[in-house]
Give the backbone structure.
Amino acid sequence: MTENEATHHSRLIERVAATQDRHAFMLLFAHFGPRVKGFMMRSGASDAYAEELAQETLLTVWRKAQTFDSSRASASTWIFTIARNLRIDGLRREKLAANAQAQLETLEDDVERPDETLNALERADRLRAALRGLSPEQLDLVRLSFFEDRPHPEIARALNIPLGTVKSRLRRSMMVLREILEDLK
């Protein structure tokens, strides 16, 4: 682009800023619209999305023309900076949307259905009732082994009984529970 063209484009933006000159804007749009679209497509945007971003870029030029300062940047640099920033914003929105969708899918997977919750509550009630059917000694062993996750030698020391007794009582307790809860499989 020649210096004369750059000056011409800067003046067009200044006319848009000063008087909202539609003809000046049309000339800017005709020149930069296809170039911005091509820039967007080279950055990976689809044809339709590149067109949308080009239009949004030039619409931003229309709205923010008064902020243009030809002493800081040429018209093309200013316009392509707007385009690049819009593309980056779009990519951020896509990433946020993808993250939100992934989180939503995770939440949907984590949420139990009402019938599953009811079944779990019924199983818990049945298990509590079955545990009440154990002797106090068996209940202590089951609690220490399965609810407190203590190893068998530690249980034997805590209850002051032989390790073999711990294992045989746990085995009998599990057989009793299995018989009571057999239909829950």
User: Anything to note?
Assistant: The mean pLDDT is 86. Residues 75-110 form the longest helix (36 residues).
